[in-house]
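Deliverable D4.2, example record:
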Amino acid sequence: MQLFFSRLFLNLRARLCFGMAGGYRNHGYHQSAQGQASQAEASLRKAIAYTIRGVALHTRGYGAHDFGLVYGYNELVRLYSTLGEYDQATAALRQAVALSERSLGPEHPNLIDMLFDLGWLYGLQGRLPEAEHTFQRALQMAESIYGPDDLHLLTHLTNLGQLYGAQRRVEEAETLGRQALAIFQQTFGPEHPHCAPALTTLAVLCREQHHYSEAEQLAQAAIVIWAKALGLTHPHVVVGLSVLATIYHAQGRNSEAEAFYQQVLTILERALGPTHPDVALALEDYATFLRTVNRLTEAIPLEARARAIRATVAPTQRVYVGWHTRWTCFVDTGSAGVIADIRQGFYQGRRARAASQQGEEGVVEPAFRGSCRETTLQDHGRP
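Output generated by the structure prediction step:
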């Protein structure tokens, strides 16, 4: 009886700590949205402290192998990831995975989500072999549980394809990209907006292999789908236009490429405003093109304007609000196997995956972008 009440008391204290942590976490998110970066960090640090305290109390009451600890570890993953402290987040998530395997079994469907997050954490740290092994395991589990043509596979195909692309394993990435496109087309129909990102993914991969004719056809098909569903001036169309510009540029069709770079910039300025971060990306892309064709005097003002836009958003603020926007991977083509930058919080990846599985309109699966600094849009208008 004494043990029962002791555990009950510790459990109540742990729940109180987790509740306090949740309050500080939400307050930190609100402060971040208001641009109060230092205050947001302080609130998130308090949330971490209370979460650690809650985990310790729960461990005292029920032991280090109790499945109930998974909640606390997952909260630590979320908080550490928000702050960009991926090594601590990885350690916490590995604890959660180990507990889940022990309690649920190594093939339980709940582990797929955890492996998804763990793979991205490895990728964020440049631990690509570990990321590949984790993504492969998640994909194999999903195929075993749901079948080879199920929507649940899409995110895992995308993740592994992105990783192969980052390592310049383009043919392997293309195989996965075609499998993902087939699932999209079979599930939603070949002209559904969900198919467009998969088409641009394949276009990039074909371009990287110098299959320019097919790459052009794929990019144009994506543009047609987006334009039909959303209008030719919608920001989503920019993804296809940007890819098409790089395809023309790679072939030396510079006048056609420049027209698309200019069109991308015009659409984003009108849709998002002249100081939006996506506009900065478009300016940098256009400036990079101008430099490659030896038009430096035209490139320099664009680069200066892009720097001015970026200077208006503090780096710490971008970290905290990152999970509100779509994550994307930029690959440095000059350094094989290096993920140059993952600009958005990886938790948005879980949301994008779930939205795709539920057929949510307007949410696009993340797609591998096979050249440095290719534009990917934020999830405009979503909380």
